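Risk register update: the risk of archive-format incompatibility is retired. Evidence:
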Amino acid sequence: MSAGKSGDGRLQIDTVDFQVPCRRFTIKANVTRERQMPVVDEFVLRLVQVVQNISVERLAGYFGFSGSEIETVLLELTNRGLLESDDQEISLSPKGQDLFKGLSEGELPRLAAVEPWTEGVWFDLVSRNIMTPARFRSLPNLLSIPEQPNARQVPESFARAAFEQNFHEYARRVRRHPDADQLAIYSISEVEAGIYGYQPMLAECWLDRGTALETNLHLPFADNDPARFALLSMAAVDVWAMLSGPEQSASGLADYERLTGDDRPGRLRQSGDASTWSQVLAQADREGDPLLFGATYLDYNVGKFCAVIESALGAGRTASGPPSIIWLRPGGTAWGRTFKVGETLQRLGETLSSGGVKDAQTIAIVPRAVPSGQRRHLKRVFDEGRITPTGFYPADLEIILIPGIAAMVFLHMDVGRHGAPIGIASRNERMLRALERRFNEDRISASDTLWALPAETPPQRSATKN
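Archived output:
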């Protein structure tokens, strides 16, 4: 089962990355940071504050400092603007006196250091909140949230006020400053409107195993202040709700059971109540093969598959033919709306490479049930993309095959809004041979090509372990 399990009976079944329309403002500010004063400086200032005026000689004698030592201390405090002198005696400057205002008995004075900040602050064009910036490449498979009408007319005065009001949260969440609560804005010297663009926003899809077996979208970024992010949250849910999962089929169930011997999906279709789900999801493995739940690219499932690959390579398995990772995605429009598809391919490639199987080509097999406008969404993620051949596996079946080594097989159940995947990871030779016959190179090559690497730059591959 999946590791994405909450204490209230919910299970994570998918993850979604949204592209949020934003505008960047360059904000130049002077930020003060409080810090504890060095002990010597503190006691010098405390003594001067008590006596109000004192000669350098008396001050040096009180602390037992030499002439050069007291000169060093006083020069530093004077340069900070905390002391002033009339050539005879020294006293606290107005700035030094401010250190002691409002202090309770026993409380230590603190210094405020001023730091210049130049920040590129991104405001979303839906709810007008500050976004956490990230360097990422915009991908067609990510979900784009439409901006609100006239949302681009964000005035610089709004950006200034919003930055001031949310400064501590910005310092903590975006700047990741360890002492955010000790910071304060001293002044803002400039606010300049900049470019438009997108910033990513992570969301999680959870299945509630209550009587209704409903799915919902959880947006972690809004947990701390749901009301402030309500507009953005509703916009994300609206876009997500428009997606569709693959259509359930009897042939998909039959193929899944024939390949894997796993009867869990059949039991769930016969009696899909909450108690049956609990029994099914309590099963952790079948004859040593991990039983999985949720999207294939969830971290827990990928980790289990990598362990199966490592076991196979450790037992002497080698790639059957040129090394490749073949991924038959399911139908519909809800699958793969995340960076995790590419991250999964990277993890699988690294696992293979560490076992001596290098430069595996990545091939996406796209069912004809996927709308034509979305069939090339993963062009930047996979080396090659092809349409499923005629008479291929049903669109509710998802398979990741590494020929000769291991495979993951999932069936997408008709549960909740977009379905819930359930599957298995295995290096079973019988299952691998059956999959390889269906995915044989001649059959795949005969299908329509959606995209491919340029012929003059083929990937360098190694078919066997070193």
